[in-house]
Amino acid sequence: MRLSHFWSLMNDEFGETYASSLAQHHVLGVLGDRTVAQALDDGESPRRVWLALCDAMDVPESRRLGIERRPAR
Predict the structure, then answer these.
(1) pLDDT tens-place string over residues 27-50
(2) Contacts (Cβ under 8 Å, ≥6 apart) of 65
């Protein structure tokens, strides 16, 4: 997963403002007691960070791949 896709998923699921706040302030034990931002800055895989956050925030499996976007006609 690319970092840009990670942020698209974050914004889709939590909204831009809350996604940013979560990334800066929510500490995840499974990521070594680091925030999302710290884990990403330390080189952690965006996919691993995303899945860890989904588990912590009880994001349903059906929404973990993001929303389906259809091309505009």
Answers:
(1) 999 999 999 999 999 999 999 999
(2) none
